[in-house]
Amino acid sequence: MQWKTRVTDMLGITYPIIQGGLAHLAYADLAAAVSNAGGLGQVTAMSLGNPELLKEEMRKVKQMTDAPFAVNFAIGAHDRPFIPYIEAALEEGMEIATITGGNPKPVFQALEGTNVKKLVLVAAKRQAQKAEELGADAVIVVGQEGGGHLGRDDLGTMVLVPQVVDAVKIPVIASGGIGDGRGMMAALSLGAEGIEMGTRFIATKECVDANPLYKKALIEGSEQDTVIIKRSLGAPARAISNAWTDKILELEKANAGYTELKDYISGSTNKKYIHDGKLEEGYAWAGQVLGMIKDEPTVQELFDSMIAKAEEIRCKWR
């Protein structure tokens, strides 16, 4: 069966499946594997120490695949300026950019005059409309089931996606709570023309930077094993529940400000869990979909199972 949508046409991919930006995890091995399987892999720009390292990572992807891949710019999550990273990615031939965590306008200005496709992560209908006005080629709509940073309105994917589909003319990509072919077909039935998955791709063989204990927590955990942190800072985000997130929530309940929280929610603390496997000395992002993750396949095996299930459903619909 063919899986042709405006998203597949725009991005030059076989299946309308996009790998999330995944801070500190979305590097060459995973990005290339996703692109080789027919989806769109991504490299996380701002998790790399400097723009030259981004160029090196992009070169690694190109050595591993001839298929398209994207570069993700999490513009609200780091103190470093992101424009030098955009310039480096352009020098290395970036064709697709995704923007998360902030106002995409400065990124769009930096990309003006290029043919780079621009995908913007949003968590509300108004954000999607604004992204379209600014010149986004597509929006990625994340529901509150997702891992990492979410919207403030606690709207689920099933409710939010069709609202955004009705509100914009550009393609909509659904994210949050999707981890298999059933979720993909549900998203397409809502009017989305593609899906993005983050948490599910962490528990794959090619996500080599994720510590085995992190993957084990995803495979053995349930949908009840996540919590929302950083809500008091106006930046709600879903993480695996542990002693560390308990402490964060305790501080938030006591009206702690950013200064008191910053050491608990820093990128280095995140890496203690996801890279070093120190499960009680840091935190890890994960969506509620972790309750559906039961194994650690290769990316190709994951795609094969997803497409097989999706095609089974399509046949039933006919």
Main beta sheet? 8 strands, parallel
Note the overall shape: globular
Uncertain parts: none
Structure class: alpha/beta
Q: What is the N-to-C order of secondary-structure elements (H for helix, E for strand)? A: HEHEHEHEHEHEEHEHEHHEEHHHH
- Fraction in helix: 40-55%
Percent strand: 5-15%
Please compute the radius of gyration using only Cα atoms: 18 Å
Spatial order of the strands forming the largest sheet: 1-9-8-6-5-4-3-2
Summed up, the helix count is 14
pLDDT averaged residue by residue: 96
The total strand number stands at: 11
CA distance, first residue to last residue:
13 Å
Properties at a glance:
318 residues, alpha/beta, 41% helix, globular
Report on the architecture of this protein:
The protein is α/β, with parallel strands linked by helices. 41% of the residues lie in helices and 15% in strands. The chain is built from 14 helices and eleven strands. The protein has helices at 6-11, 28-36, 51-64, 83-91, 105-110, 125-134, 157-167, 181-189, 199-202, 212-220, 243-253, 258-261, 267-274, 299-317; strands spanning 17-19, 41-44, 69-74, 96-100, 117-122, 138-142, 148-149, 172-175, 194-197, 226-229, 237-240. An eight-stranded parallel β-sheet has the order 1-9-8-6-5-4-3-2. Helix 3 (51-64) links the parallel strand 2 (41-44) and strand 3 (69-74). The longest helix has 19 residues, at 299-317. It is globular.
